[in-house]
Amino acid sequence: MSATHPQGPRLHIQLPSVRWPAVPRTQRPRISRELLGGLALFAVYLLVDALNVPSRTPTAKANAERVIQLEQWLHVDVEGWLNGWLAGRPGLMTAANYEYASTYIVSAGLLLVLTYVWAPALYRQARTSFVVLNLLAFACFAVLPLMPPRMMPGFTDTVSTGGTVGSWGSPIVAGANQLAAMPSLHMAWALWVSVMLARTSRRFALQVASAIHVAVTLYVVLATANHYLLDAVGAAVVVVAAVAITEWWDRRHPGVALPTADAFFLDVETPGHAQNVGGLVLLGSPEPTCTRVRETIAAQLDELPHFTEQLATAEVHRWVPAGPIDWSHHLTELSLPEGSGLAELDDLVGQLTAQDLPRDRPLWRAWVIRGVGDQAAFCIVMHHCMADGIGAVAKLLNLLEPPYELPIPSRDGPSVLRRGAGVIQGLAQLATDAKPAAQLPTGGTRRGFATFEVPLDAVRDAARGHRMRVTELLLAATGVALARTDPELARQCAHQLRVSVPVMLRAPGADDGGNLTGAVIVDTPARDVPVDALRDEVREQAGAIRTPTRALASRWVMASALHAAPHAGRRWFARTVYGPKYFQAIVSNMPGPDRQFTLAGAPVSRVHPILPPAPGIPLTIGALSWNGALGITVVTDGAMLDARAFAGALGDRLAELPASAHSGGAPQTSARNN
């Protein structure tokens, strides 16, 4: 096995800046989160329903008498004769009962499902306004108990008389709140559906059908004596208020809010510690023109989430359309000095990827770099809030030919109960995990950057021979390389390097946008000994990677638990846990494609991942398998560790491993890059 790593002086190049036209893209919110929101809304209803005690009945009846008197004074007391006419027609009465029990639920549910699937932007507005109108109605139920007409003298309770399944008089809803007549939720939901449909489609037939549904619902709620006409007026007021509140909120907070797992990387970012992920690609002849690369990116913008959006500055991070964007900012052509090679390319890429991405434009940049020996290079970065490591690789694949999708395992995920149990177990494990043996001193903001590659089959054979996974082999080699490169830093770590290992939790068919990984913290020995001498110790420590509980718990905290915290609390949490108090290095090992590609017509000869260091962390390693090679990128805090020296030591440690140090026992690795 052989490794190549660059040597040479540092290079400093000043870069120009610029922008171009946006294509807004809205992603669907997570279905599990929406279902939890629905359950929470139902829980609020149950809390209000708990107020329905016998002592409220006289108040509800007195309020009903006042409503009847007011309607009589206004000459709109139509419920009595509508109810009497319907009660004398059993067939129509039964049909009305079933309409009352079902169509408002079916229509509202269909609208939410259809907009979720086909119109995510409208779905968000519809969902929010639906929640608001129900909360307003629940508030009315709490402060204004109102007995419906069917419980008052002189009216026929058509539902109880007919024993209609699923409505009043049926055991299914026997416990429902029967003193919640104002406003009519049946009318409110029907009117809300009509308003949302008017915003979804301008088809005349659809508008007529919607109007008929509202009219039929109005007739039914009155004729079945479930509501007064003023209840329907109250429903209209609630719908108007809900839509107005939603629109007011959207004007103040435009765009789509970032999931907390994505916003986490905005919160941890500090000056000099840009959180950018991406890829570095070496290209053979014929070198592509910058125009051809721009056309390639432009053709894929619809497949690159948030590439045409920017962040709105507010308490909550939100995506909004970016407007006109200048290509000279997002795609720049640079040339290395004559005689430059991989070492000079690493220095330049280290400078490029360490730059903060301006928040007033889309959070990505790309460069075409000439003069890398007889090759060119293409580098692209995006903010970590847009993608995790695997997501960045998936985005890069959109720019390559032929089309290819990363091989996400097709196995079924755990059930909800098993996932919940795993999260609980993982939280307990995380709570009992010790902190690092020692906390390293604060470094600086100067970033070191170096790359090398090794044959993938040789690494896999060596891991298999040692009955280790590739990730475990990398962990062992990392500790040894640190002790060999900087014995003093290894001593400061108490010869035990605490490493954060990202674990992919991406399900088959999941959108490649956003952060869909969890982190597992493991220790690896930092001692200058042969790598194979550490096999058993590393395998034991890495057992946490092989069981998903810690990763599930980490993911749950970032994606769900942080929703309950205010932004200041989330920011404090992110900066506390994502740094030297809890780990000292990051090692990420990602699977990639096993075939040859072209970019803008040029063959891809080599690929390296780009990962950001956490603030205060001296070492970050990213490994990516690609077409028979394992491309490794080393990023360091330049004030604490020399990236090029460490890359050389790590490459040497991997190169010196025999393919079969231990012949006994079954291999622990498969053909996958794990």
Automatic annotation (TrEMBL):
Residues 66-244 form the Inositolphosphotransferase Aur1/Ipt1 domain. CDD domains: PAP2_Aur1_like. Residues 514-657 form the O-acyltransferase WSD1 C-terminal domain. The chain crosses the membrane at residues 35-53, 101-123, 130-148, 168-192, 204-222. GO terms for biological process: glycerolipid biosynthetic process. Residues 260-399 form the O-acyltransferase WSD1-like N-terminal domain. GO terms for molecular function: diacylglycerol O-acyltransferase activity. Keywords: Membrane, Transmembrane, Transmembrane helix. Pfam families: PAP2_3, WS_DGAT_C, WS_DGAT_cat. InterPro entries: Aur1/Ipt1, IPC_Synthase-Related, O-acyltransferase_WSD1_C, O-acyltransferase_WSD1_N. It is a multi-pass membrane protein. Its main location: membrane. One of its GO terms (cellular component) is membrane. PANTHER family: PA-PHOSPHATASE RELATED-FAMILY PROTEIN DDB_G0268928, PTHR31310. This is Diacylglycerol O-acyltransferase.
